[in-house]
DNA sequence: AATGAATGAGGGTTCATTCAT
DNA sequence: AATGAATGAACCCTCATTCAT
């Protein structure tokens, strides 16, 4: 939560630019020009560019992780070991995304760029920060997901989870581009909510797919 | 196809670094140091950094697109309108990937980073280059895929296609990181072939999932 | 003499940091953080960083110069033209130093850093300030020293005086570092008083050394 | 030894500015403006500002240390355990200094600023570099000096050595300023060679001074 | 064909200072 | 009397590129 008007303007400008271009591609000068503040203001208010990114990540991932954690608790409270359908779980995830999307249109692209960062090793410091900051809050959800897919070996689950993550992150991260293509091709733009909805049955089905005999001979 | 020994060494070094770090994150100095050639050699042989990336993309996407196009032709020759199972189509795709992977271990990450680039808007020039260069060769495969999923509306197909692409691109693009996590967690490393195999049933199931009633009321 | 509690805390923090790191190396932020006051407080109370340094110099050089001037007067009062042994004069100097050292452990390093500043041309304004402020008070001592070394040409005296000053200033200015080396090497730390004592015979002997025939032929 | 014309001009400009202002006080822009080269040229040729300082230190301390080491070897060769008069040793030191002074007028101030750096802890990296680079070459001289002052306790020797060093470093480091004062006062400028000569008997006498009973009671 | 040298543009960061309150 | 916010100037460094040879 920014305290001063300048800090607020910086963060807003940064969110827009980060969402559009990515973190590394966005320069301090772009941010401060867009926010119409002094170049040094970022360092004054956020300490460094990384500090700004962390503040932004807090704004977006914080409410999301909180919401998801609460949803997991609310759903599992009172019920002992009842299995939850995978579609419902993914719906919980989507709902958490739409929750952050309500307040801020830029939320989802930003959000996924942060997840991207959490995976990619390019900015080791930020990766560790994100891991430490949000890991515990998200573990509950992952555990629930795992329980539903019990018959699957651990490694199979691991990879399927990341296929899923990849589909989501990639889609939302490049949502701007993809929506542009859709418009060109079908002369029609999808609301992001609709796109998220489309994901639910696809990801659920993918998760529940019968595991193939993974031998190399066939190929 | 590199002409001189120097150009060859540059391209090999670039492939390794691009695959490991990405395009923007790799500097000319890193490339030329790794290749043990003069800094100016890249510009001399490839005109610019972008020229080098295009050359690399040619090397990787070219054979892949060619292979896939041929596979599509071979499969559809003589058969009129016969529908092909989606699993078989995805398997064709995977096979094309493994084909470029044979020659070069770095191939798959490089390959997917290029696809990533083809989507992302950050490097408009490269995006256009890749689109123009390879679009036609891949359209046959896309059409085949579309035919199998006929009952689906066009937009639904569009988005599912990109969910799939996202899962593949994201996974392979960050394969290095993901394999690292897998090793930490399960003390076991998957060969990339195995990971590709795991994708087939997941992606196929996702594609065939019963489309949900995509209204907003539920969420 | 600081007027408010804030000014006092600033000056104390500044003394510590100046003594440890030097003037240029110490930032306003370090000072105000250490003093736990607002960043702007230094400029408010002292006008500028230079103003703060001048205030500090007043605190340290003032009592020292006063003490030395008094000592010179006391010693020469009533005695007409009696020559004083050089060792006694240097002892007077050392005694003046220990006088300021009594009140404040940081005094001596601070003190010598100021002398350093008085010589060095880097901060012209401060140099002039120090020269104007304390020159007259110290001249009595210099004159006394000169009288004892009468047979020496003026220039010879001038240079020997500065050799001496150099030995003292350098040693005390870097006392922290030197004591660290001593501790490493001999596992023993000298009190600053002891070091000052060691100087007396050395400097005295240096001053009284038979002047060599300073021709260039020998070298 | 700089290879290109630009590198040469940079180093010459740097030497002048370093000698006049010190290392930290001299900026890359000053250097490159003075040398009339591009700002990036320093980083190209020397890697960094620190790299430039190291190159400069190599140029000045290298020949000096070499010369002194050779002089020590030459003097002690053949003679077993013969004690050498302290005056002769200091003369050796002065001779080594004048040796570097021959080629370059800026040599001595630069030279002593480097020694200053070697003592002061402000630039830890450079301090370590200098220590590692030149320590061994200078140890022979120190040992010889120590042998002549055998009756003295180790700590006494340690401090006297640094008094001496202080006198030399301080004088030469601020030679520009001191000569200015001399000119103002006596309307006469000393050649640096003369000043070095003046040091010999003074430092020698200081070294050989009868150690006082260093008790605190007297002061 | 190839390279060492050099460059302009732009990167994030730090500094003492000032302003409005 | 005192401060949080903000700033302009300057810091060192890195980048892809180009030039002369």
Give a description of the structure.
The structure is a homotetramer of 219-residue chains. With 219 residues, chain A is mainly α. Chain A has ten helices and no strands. In chain A, helix 1 crosses helix 6. The interface between C and D is large, with 62 and 62 residues. Chain A binds a DNA duplex (21 and 21 nucleotides) through helix 1 and helix 3.
Layout of secondary structure:
The structure is a homotetramer of 219-residue chains.
Chain A: H1 5-21, H2 28-35, H3 41-46, H4 49-76, H5 86-103, H6 107-119, H7 124-148, H8 154-173, H9 175-186, H10 192-208
The structure holds a DNA duplex (21 and 21 nucleotides).
Write a concise keyword list for the protein shown above:
mainly alpha, homotetramer, 75% helix, 10 helices, disordered C terminus, DNA-binding, 219 residues
């Amino acid at each position: 939560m920014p305290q001063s008007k300048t800090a607020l303007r910086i963060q807003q400008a940064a969110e827009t630019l980060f969402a559009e271009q990515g973190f590394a591609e966005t320069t301090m000068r772009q941010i401060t020009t867009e926010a119409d503040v002094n170049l040094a203001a970022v360092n004054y208010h956020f300490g460094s560019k990384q500090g700004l990114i962390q503040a932004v990540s807090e704004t977006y991932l914080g409410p999301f992780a909180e919401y998801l954690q609460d949803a997991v608790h609310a759903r599992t409270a009172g019920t002992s070991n009842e299995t939850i359908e995978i579609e419902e779980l993914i719906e919980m995830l989507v709902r958490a995304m739409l929750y952050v999307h309500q307040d801020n249109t830029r939320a989802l692209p930003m959000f996924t760029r942060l997840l991207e960062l959490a995976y990619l090793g390019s900015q080791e410091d930020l990766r560790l920060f994100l891991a430490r900051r949000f890991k515990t809050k998200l573990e509950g959800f992952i555990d629930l997901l795992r329980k539903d897919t019990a018959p699957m070996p651990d490694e199979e689950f691991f990879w399927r989870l990341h296929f899923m993550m990849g589909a989501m992150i990639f889609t939302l991260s490049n949502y701007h581009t993809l929506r542009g293509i859709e418009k060109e091709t079908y002369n029609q733009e999808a609301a992001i909510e609709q796109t998220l909805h489309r994901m639910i049955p696809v990801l659920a089905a993918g998760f529940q797919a019968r595991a193939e005999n993974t031998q190399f001979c066939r190929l």
